[in-house]
Amino acid sequence: MQKGQLGHGDTIQRDRPTVVSELLKYKIVRAGAGRSHTVVMTEDGISLSFGWNKHGQLGSGSVRNEIESSPVRCLVSEVKNIACGADFTVWLTSAEGASILTAGLPQYGQLGHGTDNEYNTKDSSVRLAYEAQPRPRAIASLSGETIIKVACGTNHTVAVDSNGYVYTWGFGGYGRLGHREQKDEWAPRRVDVFQRHNVLPPDAVISAGSVNSACTAGGGQLYMWGKIKNTGDDWMYPKPLMDLSGWNIRCMNSGNMHHFVGADSSCISWGHAQHGELGFGPNGQKSSAIPKKVDILEGMHVISVACGMGHSMVVVDKTNVGDRLDQLDIYDGKASDEGVEEPEIQIAAGKQNAKKGTAKASNNSKKRKNPKDSSDSEGDEDDDDSENSDEQVNGQTEQKGRGSNPAGRGRGKGTNKSTRGRGRPPSANKSSQPSQGRPGKRGRPRKS
């Protein structure tokens, strides 16, 4: 696309999956995507990236090329996992003393190095910018810990160490860091709820949405914190989501304000949606305040889920699904020489279909405007595109940050700063929900 994030050496839009030819010589086992960049990991621990590199999020050690439309090597080795925020990247490695490294935009402290690298663009200017961090650097405060899990939101990070302790840092708005306050954290801070007798088990699931975070703790109980739904109080610290108690949760992911879970032989979703991202079908409800099973996937073993700002993806094990997959609609893309049709824009009931370029279409787009995200203010800043030519792997050399003392520097935009949160999402609208998929008496989505 425009920032080269597809890795094909150009900026051409492609409407169907296309093999990245320069990656054919590698066996890719993991991939992550940010706002406009992509990072992959090979079977032998090599990491490559492509796309927008204005903030150094590709981890190549340089910001000379703002766009890298073909894969470039990241300056990390022995990579075990990767995760991408909007404009930054996190790598987990098996290198001694460098189990977690970060690169990219440091604006809210999401890199975890104790600074946001803020500076004035000119001596007499009040406009601020944030120094790009193009070389992956180990987080010093976690040098004595082995980080085994990581997830990234738009501008915050969640990590788990080998002892089962949970750390969060970065943008603190809406309580998404789980520290009972909305202050930004420029270095990893342990979440006190998951200590002592409530540490995370080795098979725990963690997730970071745009404005919230989640994990499974003892007994597989799902905890969430941050902005969970559009109305009501924010959850300023982790609270158990009782609707999913007792389910064997294998995977979870959150988008802007919607959530997907793979558990037992079901796929469950809930939250605020506008584009069908909950998977309930064209005739199903658009949003759901309570977890509800995705009927079309019932009985399938969900391996993995992923959520974007307005879409969702689910990977299922096709071993025992029989002909169930044949019942799903198939989209095979369009050939490059075929014209791309403009989809009809649906207007509210009683109005005719809008035609391209008419005022009705414009009005309709306003009706479907995405809910306001606290990270709307997390805009792009002009950074110095200076090249960092000292290519050191796994960030063993310390760098000097220009940021000031992080104490008290909060940019959280949430209007409700109370430290109280509700223990579970309300279900006042249950009467409007179809009986299929309501939680049972024990707080579980009813199984068929």
Automatic annotation (TrEMBL):
Protein name: Protein RCC2
Top-level taxonomic group: Eukaryota
GO molecular function: small GTPase binding
A cellular component annotation (GO) from this entry: membrane
Residue ranges of the region described as Disordered: 347-448
The keyword Magnesium is assigned to this record: no
SUPFAM superfamilies: RCC1/BLIP-II (SSF50985)
UniProt feature, compositional bias: Acidic residues: 376-390
InterPro entries for this protein: RCC1-like_dom, RCC1/BLIP-II, RCC2, Reg_chr_condens
Biased composition (Basic residues): 410-423, 439-448
Domain RCC1-like: 3-320
Entry keywords, A to Z: Repeat
UniProt repeat feature RCC, residue ranges: 1-44, 45-95, 98-163, 164-219, 265-318
